[in-house]
Specification:
- Helix content is 69%, strand content 3%.
- The protein is mostly helical.
- The protein has a single domain, classed as Amino acid/polyamine transporter I.
- The strands form two sheets. The protein has a two-stranded antiparallel ribbon.
- β1 and β2 form a beta hairpin.
- α3 packs across α8.
- It is globular and about 65 Å long.
- The protein starts with a helix and ends in a 9-residue tail after the last helix.
- The relative contact order is 0.19.
Length: 481
Amino acid sequence: MARDMQKNTVFIEQQDPEAYHQNFVEDDGREKRTGTWITASAHIITAVIGSGVLSLAWAIAQLGWVAGPAVLLAFSFITYFTSTLLADCYRSPDPVTGKRNYTYMDVVRANLGGGKVRLCGLAQYGNIIGVTVGYTITASISMVAIKRSNCFHKNGHHHAKCSTSNNTSMITFACIQIVLSQIPNFHKLSWLSIIAAVMSFAYSTIGLGLSIAKAAGGSRGRTTLTGTTIGVDVTAAEKVWRTFQAIGDIAFAYAYSTVLVEIQDTLKSTPPENKSMKRASAVAVSTTTLFYVLCGCIGYLAFGNIAPGNFLTDFGFYEPFWLIDIANVCIAVHLIGGYQVFCQPLFGFVEKWSCKRYPESKFINTEHGVNIPFLGVYYVNMFRLVWRTVYVIVTAIIAMIFPFFNDFVGLIGAASFWPLTVYFPIEMYIARSKMQKFSCAWAWLKILNWACLIVSLVALAGSVQGLIQSLKTYKPFQAQQ
């Protein structure tokens, strides 16, 4: 079928160029977009309900029943509010009829310009690298958890030596990503995002059900209004640092602004992209927040103040082992799709820059048609093949060297939340609306901006401290105990 569609497209292009342009090409000469608010919601859910959901029970345990849910809801409201501001920046100067901006950097260039464009690129692509490393770590943990749960089931929890290395799983994950990374662009990813979104709901539901079962079974842990107790669970210093790191973990759980503009660029122009994107954001953020509150709070209820950093793989959930296996398979499949959602903007940026910098290079610009049975012709670009493969290998090596799930998640969330989710959307909205300085709206937006900066800084400090502590006792490439 794919081959027949491709032949029909070529035929229309040759016989009736006007019809071809109308049906397959946008006004700006790019490929016709087919995305809807449903596919955009799938992309967002794939990006948002990632490895962050697994650490929420631990984060709530550090903050307690009062601050934990409050911080979760605060981040959801801030994320949705700033995402609506960013959605209106996709076209400029008018959000409906203006010129399209294809990437986050293009949006910042059109609305702010100057050195802020480079700052945006550094924050966005640095975040993408961090997320893809984090996803490699998390996927390998889930793959290893399948082996460990089967080992414990077969040999018993107390006598079996079920330690194993994450490295083999990371290599397997990287091999899969090398293949999938040859998907040319975001427009071809809808099917993968839909599968990944379904997987995210599946493992979140399984984790939620197991937490409910554990809590109802009477073996739940001790919980408090303020979370971990100084002198009982942690020292005073540990309480402070862990609180900061927990905030970073929650920030990471809502990190999708990094790819929002690129997701919006997949939407059809009718209805207007900003309206579809706002609808997709509302559906996705409200859905994920519901899952986050349930998973975080019920996970905390089940484990109490000793909640693990990853509530599906760290401890306790070894029976029923087959259900744990299903959950971890779902996590791995979801992160396979999530990896692609996050890295496509970086792939596109490097390839666009390379084509512009070396327009005469055949290695960079030539597409080679390869006939694949039952699928039609696939066009291979040698530069795309080589550079994307190298990128996947490098992220896998970094993940092998620093396999610290909780610390890495908090570090990425803290470093990227303020600039990409808060600062740029607010500053662009102020610039676009020509808002008067020191007006009421201007003052509230600035207060929100500065408050989020302070929160991000303290979360960053907590995550760095946690990473330093982990490095003190870490031996590279050791087996997981």
